């Protein structure tokens, strides 16, 4: 950062925080089946933890059902165990090498729990964005101290970094509001 902040890098890192937040939100169940619901599940396979999508095909044959076709017959029990122990509230039904996962209707208490989880994900995203801002501000202070950038430039660049931070946090809040409306919809 010889001449101040690298705004492209800052923007990329903030967008990375938003993308991670979107992935977290996609894994929350809202009453409609989605193959993304099983993304966080890790299966103990061949001596290590592997993502579910590396040992099976996940599909959505109907709106309230997820189908998991396990490729290796010896892995069916490990996949079943991983899904049951994932704290997602799923109860798979084994049918040969296929696991069918019916999605029960969400009750009000579960919807509130999911909303709280979404809030936690949003706060994690906000913290990640603030870390990016802190790193950028530290870089600007160091550049000013080293004499690479003048005080006026540091002030202008700091304001630009703060605006990027505010815009990104507003995006996080918007995504959270959309997801909450989707979760609470009966």
- Count the beta strands: 6
**Stretches with pLDDT under 50, minimum 5 residues:** none
Global shape = elongated
Spatial order of strands in the largest sheet: 3-4-6-5
Sheet/helix structural class: alpha+beta
As a percent range, the share of helical residues equals 40-55%
Average pLDDT confidence is: 86
Largest sheet: 4 strands, antiparallel
- Give the termini separation: 51 Å
Q: How much beta, percentage-wise?
A: 15-25%
> How large is the count of helical segments?
4
What Rg is obtained from the alpha carbons, in whole angstroms? 22 Å
What is the N-to-C succession of helices and strands?
Answer: HEEEEHEEHH
Give an account of the 3D structure.
The chain is α+β, with helices and mostly antiparallel strands and 186 residues long. Helices cover 54% and strands 16% of the residues. The protein has helices at residues 7-26, 76-84, 108-145, 151-184; strands spanning 42-45, 48-51, 56-62, 65-70, 93-95, 98-102. The strands form 2 sheets. Strands 3-4-6-5 form a 4-stranded antiparallel sheet. α1 (7-26) runs parallel beside α4 (151-184) and α3 (108-145) packs antiparallel against α4 (151-184). The mean pLDDT is 86.
Name its key features.
single chain; 186 residues; alpha+beta; 4-stranded antiparallel β-sheet; two-stranded antiparallel ribbon; 4 helices; 6 strands; 16% strand; elongated
Brief synopsis:
The chain has 186 residues and is α+β, with helices and mostly antiparallel strands. It has helices spanning 7-26, 76-84, 108-145, 151-184; strands at 42-45, 48-51, 56-62, 65-70, 93-95, 98-102.
């Amino acid at each position: 950062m010889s001449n101040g902040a690298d705004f492209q890098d800052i923007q990329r890192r903030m967008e990375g925080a938003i993308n991670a937040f979107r992935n977290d939100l996609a894994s929350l169940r809202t009453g409609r089946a989605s193959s993304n619901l099983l993304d966080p599940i890790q299966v103990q396979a061949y001596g290590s933890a592997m993502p579910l999508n590396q040992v099976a095909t996940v599909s959505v044959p109907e709106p309230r059902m997820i189908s998991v076709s396990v490729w290796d017959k010896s892995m069916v029990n490990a996949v079943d165990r991983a899904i049951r122990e994932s704290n997602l509230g799923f109860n798979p039904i084994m049918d040969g090498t296929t696991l069918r996962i019916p999605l029960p209707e969400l009750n009000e208490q579960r919807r509130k729990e999911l909303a709280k989880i979404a809030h936690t994900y949003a706060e994690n995203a906000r913290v990640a964005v603030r870390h990016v801002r802190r790193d950028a501000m530290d870089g600007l202070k160091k550049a000013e101290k080293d004499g690479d950038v003048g005080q006026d430039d540091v002030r202008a660049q700091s304001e630009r970094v703060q605006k990027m931070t505010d815009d990104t946090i507003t995006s996080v809040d918007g995504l959270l509001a959309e997801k909450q409306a989707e979760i609470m919809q009966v």
